[in-house]
Prior knowledge:
By secondary structure, the chain is of the alpha/beta class. It contains 14 helices and eleven strands. Helix 1 (25-33) links the parallel strand 3 (14-16) and strand 4 (38-40). The longest helix is centred in the last third of the chain and has 19 residues, at 256-274.
Amino acid sequence: MVKIADIELGDFPLLLAPMEDVSDPPFRALCKQYGADLMYTEFISSEGLIRDAAKSVKKLDIFEYERPVGIQIFGSSIDSMRKATEVTQGANPDIIDINYGCPVKKVAGKGAGAGILQDIPKMVEMTREIVKSTHLPVTVKTRLGWDEDTKYIVEVAERLQDVGIKAISIHGRTRKQMYKGEADWDLISQVKHNSRMHIPVFGNGDINTPQKAVEYKNRYGVDGVMIGRASIGNPWFFKQVKHFIATGEELGMPSIEERVDVVKKHLEMSLEWKGEREGIVEMRRHYSNYFKGIPDFKPLRMKLVTSFEAEEIFDTLQEVKRQFSTIL
Length: 328
């Protein structure tokens, strides 16, 4: 049984990665339905939280059915991160997660996210202060290092554990790699098999099939895997992985009817949580994966990603069901 502090997550937990404009409450609800064991919110700016910025505060929304759920925060100022931790604690998550992995320039370039990998002593001190300022378990999401010459993750993980984190998720790339190349799971495995480590170590990067999840589980010995891009428009990926672990057999994709019903539910929740325009726009990144493998789907996909009218999108989804339910 893998545990973060007293939170039981099962024998090989599957975690939903914190993804900007993806890991919102509507999407998390679906991932939970299909088997995610632990989910994290989109990352939230510490500066936004302490300034009470509406967009940042809204991301604190979590719901009972999601539990266990972690709220992830990022920032470059230790004082701001400590204050943001106190604000975040007020939203009553199960876990507070620190983002030390985001590689995008607007975050890392300011010394937040993966940017802090250029200053390990500050990273350790920030973590210490966050742990001290909350009664909740603190976890960390990070990368191997800033670049090929600074892949200090084995030592860094030890030091973060020593100041009190309860689990670590490691993306197997450096900040310089962004999302290119192949993730290096050998270093993640070295962290896991370091005799000084006693907290759960979760691997992240390139888990895009159930077979790969099982292969990496067996080869690298991690406590669980964090799934990011493979889940976009594909919340049933968690169910497929669990089925493959249990049976060794592929579950396959859901029927067109189920896919359309899930997309409708996702869209309805997005409209309710974000409002019509934002809800419609942010759903667009999901459609290609939701309807992956359908032949000659481009005309309908174009309608889905260009419409600004909710009613028109629901009509298009009905058309998808009419056209393809007898084929697939």
